[in-house]
Amino acid sequence: MPEPLRVKSGELTADEIITALIEGRRVIVEAEMLGGVHEVTLRHDGQTFYCDTPTTLHKHPDEEGMRGCIARMGYGKEV
């Protein structure tokens, strides 16, 4: 398994994050939430996209759903 890609929120675009996920990498995003800085793990198993936060595991059935999550949560760089 490839080494996880570690980034801070806003460091990569949604396209860059999605590309890394499709290539089989986990993307660990350092994000401000719940009154502190936490790590969120984004991953793709070939079918489903996952967003594992400190409180919840979100599942997205397609790339569009994952892009929406990245945008809503501010994980990606705005372009």
TrEMBL record:
| Domain annotation DUF8001: ranges | 1-78
Q: InterPro entries from the entry? A: DUF8001
Which Pfam families does its entry note? DUF8001 (PF26008)
**Name this polypeptide is given:** DUF8001 domain-containing protein
> What is the scientific name of the source organism?
Salinirubrum litoreum
Starting at the broadest rank, the lineage of the source organism is: Archaea, Methanobacteriati, Methanobacteriota, Stenosarchaea group, Halobacteria
